[in-house]
Structures are given as structure tokens and as C-alpha cells.
Write a structure and sequence with these properties.
This protein is an alpha/beta fold. The protein has a single domain, classed as Glycosidases (TIM Barrel), CATH 3.20.20.80. The protein has 11 helices and 11 strands. Strands 1-4-5-6-7-8-9-10 form an 8-stranded parallel β-barrel. Helix 10 runs parallel beside helix 11. About 45% of the residues are buried. The N terminus and C terminus are likely disordered.
Length: about 375
């Protein structure tokens, strides 16, 4: 009898494990399912390093062929390349098409090299001026306008159809659709974006998230997206973190953006690590992926920031983080950059960070879009 009970328990655990190791999209492409599975496996002992706009431009350059500041320092591109859907709306049709064409080439190139792409969405306000930021004299609280029943709902559906058409067009050299980790409505717990907490109710935010995922997946037929949920660092408990969570059926990855605790406002790495633990613990409990979706220190003036601040934060607890991503290196600004370039003060320390067995870069990734079948599962 005890053996029967034990076998039943093992079967239940196996079922939970299977459910927790697949994307929310039951029709996700094989490459998307493999990425999800492999990110979860790698997170047990490693974290992938990411950099926003790494291959589009860098400190003092634009549109280099197979170039990134990270590669100039280490010999490898970041494992995760951050891009943005900001150019997909709020512009002329010609400008939108150009943005889509350029971004398509970027993500296909990353896929062909074996790297991973995550897309943020600095979504220009679809019902008022002000861009993606909240501007008191200009902005309207657009979320209530674009959810079902809202005055701009059909307009929002048209924008999503444009994203979906683009998602259907990103095919690698192998003819497969490129998986994307899509991270809409980020830092929603702050007030600087029009989708932020002061400008929309909890119910409205959850509704726009749920509709966005459902429409892309079920109506437009996008099956190469994983969906990442990432507030800023304003939470101190799981309940705070989940205050606007749209539900496990609508999220593949949980994360946070945190600059404030990492040197911008203060050095509070114990606090940052604890917040990451909240995220990682919830991900393991809910069968999700977890990530440190944005961080960094502008200009990296701290010569040992990589091994004395970032690495200890990532390793204080036994976290399972798929990746950590630092923000962009502006092409013109002498101070707006978050990753080193040759000659930058933290270059040598970054090389130590690169060489650490915990961190993975693009050269370290092997067949992240493939997986082996085991006993007929997947």
C-alpha cells in the first residue's frame, strides 16, 4: 500500500513538473518550448548575461557588422540581446516598416548565432501625445481606452496585429520562427510610463495584460513568444510583487527591473538579492522562469561593480535566474552606458565576470533551441 501511495505521489510530482516546464501557449513552436525548457535547466547553475540594444549600436558607433561593445571586450556577444518594439507604432507607415525590417534582421542574426532575444515595449501612447512617458500636461491614461469596450480598443488590436505579422516573419536560416521573450508594460508599479500604477487601476492593468497575451496567441496565432512580467523594485513581499499579476495562465517568466538598489540610489545588494529571491521562489512554486530583467549602473564608475556588486547579488541565495540584463550603451552620450567597452574603467573586472563559471555568454550556448525527447515526453 505504501508503495502504491508512493508511486501515485511520484506520478503527481512528475505531472506538476511537466506542466511547469512548458510555456503557457499550448501551441508554442518546438523552438520556443525548447528555449523555455533549456532556460529553466541552465538557471539551476548559471545565469545568462544580457545587454539591451547590444548589437544595434554601442558607445560611439552605430550599425556595426556583428559588433557589440561586450564582444569587443570579451570576444563574445551577450547571451541575451535586448530589443524594443517602440518603433512598431506611433510613427508613419514607412517608418514603422523600416523599424520592423531592421529589427527582423537583428533578431534573426541573433538566432542564427545561437543567442536569445528579449523584447521590451516602450509603447508610444496610442490616444495622446507624450510618447511612452507620462507627461502631466499631455498624457491620457490610455489603458482604460485600449481594453475591451474602450474607445481605442480596435486601434489597439490593429497595433497587436502588426506585432503578430512581424512575429510570423522572423525566420532563421533553418526556416524556423525565432522565439522572443516579450516583456510588455514593464515597470508598471512606477508612475513614469502611461501604463503605470497611478494612471490605471489594478483591474484595468490585469485586463490589458490578459487581452494582449490572448489576442496575440489565440486570435493572431503568435506561437513563438514567451511572456515576461516585470515590475520595478517597489515590492518587499510576494504579495506586493503579485499585486497586479494577471495570473499564471498569462505569464511565462517573472522578473524585476532594479537600478535603485544596485548603486544608482544606494548600494543595497542584500535588499536586491532578497527581492530576487521572492521572484525566484515564486517562479519555482508556480512553474515559471525567473530573470533579473533590467539592472545596471550608468557609466559603470565603480571599477569592480561586476564582481563586487552584481555577482554577489545574483549569488547570495540559491536563485534560479534565466538571465540578467543591463541597459544600453548610447551611441552619442559620453555617460549613458551600462556595459564596458575597450578602455572603460570596469573593463578588466568585467572580464573576470565573463570568466566566472556562473555567467554564460553567447559563445557558451549550445543548441538552446533544441531538446532531447525523454520517454516520449515533449
Amino acid at each position: 500500500m505504501q508503495r502504491v501511495i508512493g508511486l501515485i505521489a511520484m506520478g503527481m510530482l512528475f505531472l506538476v513538473s511537466c506542466v511547469g516546464n512548458r510555456p503557457i501557449d499550448k501551441k508554442a513552436t518546438p523552438e520556443t518550448r525548447a528555449l523555455y525548457k533549456n532556460l529553466g535547466k541552465l538557471a539551476k547553475n548559471h545565469t545568462l548575461f544580457g545587454h539591451q540594444h547590444a548589437t544595434e549600436y554601442g558607445h560611439g558607433w552605430f550599425s556595426g557588422k556583428d559588433r557589440s561593445d561586450v564582444k569587443s571586450v570579451t570576444g563574445s556577444h551577450p547571451a541575451v540581446i535586448g530589443v524594443d518594439f517602440s518603433g512598431f507604432s506611433g510613427r508613419s507607415p514607412e517608418a514603422i516598416q523600416q523599424a520592423k525590417d531592421e529589427l527582423r534582421q537583428n533578431v534573426v542574426d541573433t538566432y542564427n548565432r545561437g543567442g536569445v532575444t528579449t523584447a521590451a515595449w516602450h509603447f508610444s501612447n496610442p490616444v495622446s501625445k507624450g510618447g511612452f512617458y507620462w507627461v502631466d500636461s499631455l498624457s491620457l491614461p490610455a489603458v482604460k481606452y485600449i481594453i475591451p469596450g474602450g474607445e481605442a480598443h480596435e486601434q489597439y488590436k490593429e497595433i497587436l496585429r502588426g506585432i503578430g505579422e512581424w512575429a510570423h516573419s522572423i525566420k532563421g536560416a533553418d526556416g524556423k520562427l525565432v522565439p522572443i521573450i516579450f516583456r510588455p508594460f514593464h515597470e508598471f508599479d512606477g508612475g513614469w510610463f502611461w501604463w503605470g500604477k497611478p494612471h490605471t487601476s489594478r483591474e484595468e492593468f490585469m485586463q490589458v495584460w490578459q487581452f494582449t497575451v490572448s489576442y496575440l496567441r489565440d486570435s493572431v496565432g503568435v506561437h513563438n513568444f514567451l511572456y515576461a512580467f516585470s515590475p520595478d523594485n517597489k515590492f518587499n513581499s510576494e504579495a506586493d510583487f503579485l499585486e497586479r499579476y494577471p495570473g499564471d495562465k498569462y505569464v511565462d517568466m517573472v522578473g524585476m527591473d532594479n537600478y535603485g538598489d544596485m548603486g544608482r540610489d544606494r548600494y543595497a545588494i542584500d535588499t536586491a538579492a532578497y527581492k530576487l529571491k521572492i521572484i525566484s521562489d515564486y517562479a519555482r512554486k508556480a512553474g515559471k522562469l525567473a530573470a533579473f530583467t533590467e539592472t545596471g549602473l550608468e557609466s559603470v564608475p565603480n571599477a569592480t561593480w561586476w564582481t563586487n556588486t552584481l555577482l554577489p547579488t545574483l549569488r547570495k541565495y540559491p536563485l534560479r535566474l534565466s538571465y540578467v540584463l543591463v541597459w544600453r550603451n548610447d551611441t552619442q552620450s559620453p555617460t549613458h552606458y551600462y556595459a564596458p567597452f575597450p578602455g572603460q574603467v570596469s573593463e578588466q573586472n568585467f572580464l573576470q565576470f565573463y570568466q566566472h563559471p556562473y555567467t554564460l555568454f553567447e559563445k557558451d550556448l549550445k543548441n538552446i533551441y533544441k531538446r532531447r525527447k525523454f520517454l516520449g515526453v515533449f
